[in-house]
Amino acid sequence: MSKQEVSIFWFRRDLRLEDNVGLFHALKSKQPVIPLFIFDDSILDSLPKNDTRVGFIHESLSKINNRLQEIGSSILIKKGKTTEVWQSLLQEFDVKEVFFNKDYEPYAIKRDSAICEILEANNAISYSFKDQVIFEEKEITKADGLPYTVYTPFKNKWLEKYKSMAPVQEYDTEAYFSGFHKNSFAFPTLEQIGFEESPIKVKPHNLNFISNYQDIRDFPALDQTSYLSPHLRFGTVSIRKLVNWAFHKNDVFLSELIWREFFMQILFSFPKVVTQNFKSAYDGIQWRNDEADFKRWCSGTTGYPMVDAGMRQLNETGYMHNRVRMVVASFLCKHLLIQWQWGEAYFAEKLLDYDLSANVGNWQWAAGTGCDAAPYFRVFNPEIQQKKFDEKGMYIRKWIKEFDLGYGEPMVEHAMARDRAIATYKAGILK
């Protein structure tokens, strides 16, 4: 009995049906489209069983599946190593074409290359599309074709190119829903995937405050942030819709979205930054890397209220306010002289919005070792940051319950730590 000819759309960092470029093109193909998601063991095996991000992916897929069931279709969920899953799928179905949206992280590039080789060997044609960014890879470059390594000229070129085409095209996928394969695949529970519910949840995004974003974004007690970042990370929102909207609403908010693409371009063009300093001149810095100090930083018991409140917020919720992220990162790298890779790894474990390019980019910014980074002699004073951005201590009291009962002494004196950091950097920067 011959197998039915099908196309497959492979969901990854684009967990939505709306304005999805690869899905739009898949649904216009000749064959009925099976929507697919693979829970990748190469990623999952290192995660705790109650990882909130896996739960959020499962929840997002469930919403997609519910919508597909309304039109007589469903999503196919697989779990395993991606190469083995695809070998199995090619045995199960007569796959003619495979569509997916690009991912620019080193692991994903290597994975997708391997899958495309398997598909080609089985006479299936693969198509990849730009979806999670407005401009990708080498679309925003200097006049000589080299990538920008400083944000402001990148932003200016980005805006110039965007304005020439604004609004950027959005894709009406719903108009082609008839192209989905008619099926009823079983949708697995979170437990069947090997995970369990987490008490920590991803919050819905909120853009109601956007008109005065620039005036309120630095004050953590106001809790006036968009909570968009996990949704951008997993693609439950469309970057095209968001940018087309933000362009007319708030320049500062739009700039944050451009920073996201800047760091993605840096990661794509300079993949060494995942583990190494962008500025190799900083490779000679002699870090203290004291494990006991690192544990106090992780647990939010440094004696600096702004630092400790941020770390406790992270540990309890998976979120941390952006202003506070800068303070805690600077403290780890400058006050404690612990290399940024330690902090980056801890954030990767805890942050619900963990995105490799942004996490590496921001940590190297704080450490002074990245592109367009804060200079090494800029050392945030946590006490001054607290007075400027949480003067009444509302944010601090929310996360440090014992604050008014007599808070502990700082684990390191600021002036001494600042002088030590500057001297260590000076001595370690390679000439």
From TrEMBL:
Flavoprotein in keyword set: yes
GO terms for MF: deoxyribodipyrimidine photo-lyase activity; DNA binding; FAD binding
GO biological process, one term: response to stress
Record keywords, A-Z: Chromophore, FAD, Flavoprotein, Lyase
Photolyase/cryptochrome alpha/beta domain: residues covered: 5-134
Keyword Membrane applies: no
Named cofactor requirement(s): FAD; (6R)-5,10-methylene-5,6,7,8-tetrahydrofolate
Note on how the cofactor is bound: Binds 1 FAD per subunit.
Site keyed Electron transfer via tryptophanyl radical: positions: 287, 340, 363
Residues that coordinate or bind FAD: 213, 225-229, 253, 256-263, 353-355
Alphabetized InterPro entries for the sequence: Crypto/Photolyase_FAD-like_sf, Crypto/Photolyase_N_sf, Cryptochr/Photolyase_FAD-bd, Cryptochrome/DNA_photolyase_1, DNA_photolyase_1_CS_C, DNA_photolyase_N, Rossmann-like_a/b/a_fold
Highest taxon in the source lineage: Bacteria
PANTHER family cross-referenced by the UniProt entry: CRYPTOCHROME, CRYPTOCHROME CIRCADIAN CLOCK 5 ISOFORM X1
Similarity annotation: Belongs to the DNA photolyase family.
The protein's name in its UniProt record: Deoxyribodipyrimidine photo-lyase
Highest classification ranks of the organism: Bacteria, Pseudomonadati, Bacteroidota, Flavobacteriia, Flavobacteriales
